[in-house]
Amino acid sequence: MIVTNTPGYRHILREIWRPAALLFVWDVIVTVTYYVVPFTAPSLPLTLFGTALALFLGFRSNSAYQRWWEGRVLWGQMINASRSLARQARNYLPDEAKDLKRTIVLRQIAYVNALRCQLRRQAPDGEVLRFLSRGEADFALGRVNVANGIVDGTGRRINGACAQGWIDTIQQASMESILVDIANAQGGMERLKNMPLPSQYRFFPTIFTHLLCILLPIGLVDTLGFATPLGSSIAGLMFLVVLAIGDDLVDPFANTVHDVPLTAMCRTIEIDLLQAIGDQAPQPLRPDARGVLW
Asked: Which of 68, 154, 105 is nearest to 269 (CA)?
């Protein structure tokens, strides 16, 4: 996620120079053709077309942003649930179960990192394996849903603590309710990842936006004259930018510069949970040189 007030100029140019160059070349071709073979195009249909497309793109961008924001809210719930699970494990379990306290906390750190990798379509990385013992890692990695395998194992350990008399049934139910919240948040994230916007929202806006960019200089050249390449390119680029915004936000977990900063939030969970059990915690992640927080 870009956390600076404005993206870097290099980043902006890298994203827009290709469409801007193509638009300008097309606009120059239309302008030269107009002065060689004069023609007149009706402006009203183009105006209506542009207005309808602007409304369509605005609605699509709002839908994409709602998906992005829902992804951020779900990860906020995951951070809160992780803190609550660590706090209850620390406070409910007796001193004789200090190893179990530590195991539950470390498993939760491994869980959020495994979920991060799954949402980004990556294999579990070292941040997952670092907090699991060899046997625990083998069991979790053997599951299709690695993150769910980790949280299932945590649930079994809480059940075992109740069977040993370390916690009572009320405390077990309280900790299990947190695991339910974690599972619900994961389910919401998987829904966002696996269920994209309907194809009509992705296909037709792309077609209509490019069609408008083709028609713009034809409709504007009679009014703008030699200024058509500049004016038409700027107008067309505005529509292309709105189209690109929807494409960038529709998948909040795609591991691009525009997405929810999963790595930074996993680090936040790691810091809070390690400090909850008195362990040394790493430093929070900072934006890179481009102002991007991953």
From this structure: 105
pLDDT in tens, 59-72: 888 888 898 999 99
- Distance between CA atoms of 105 and 93, rounded to whole angstroms? 12
Distance CA(275)–CA(273), nearest Å, equals 5
CA quadruple 119, 122, 126, 128: dihedral, nearest 10: 30
pLDDT in tens, 177-199: 999 999 999 999 999 888 887 77
Q: What is the separation, in whole angstroms, between the first and last Cα of the chain?
A: 6
Give which of 198, 242, 269 is closest to 285, Cα–Cα.
269
Q: Which tokens is 159 given?
A: 């059940």
Half-sphere exposure of 162 (CA within 13 A, CB side): 14
Per-residue pLDDT, 242: 84
Q: Using H for helix, E for strand and C for coil, what is the string for 69-92?
A: HHHHHHHHHHHHHHHHHHHHHHHH
Residue 21 has pLDDT above 80, yes or no: yes
**Among residues 293, 294, 248, 290, which one has the least CA distance to residue 6?**
290
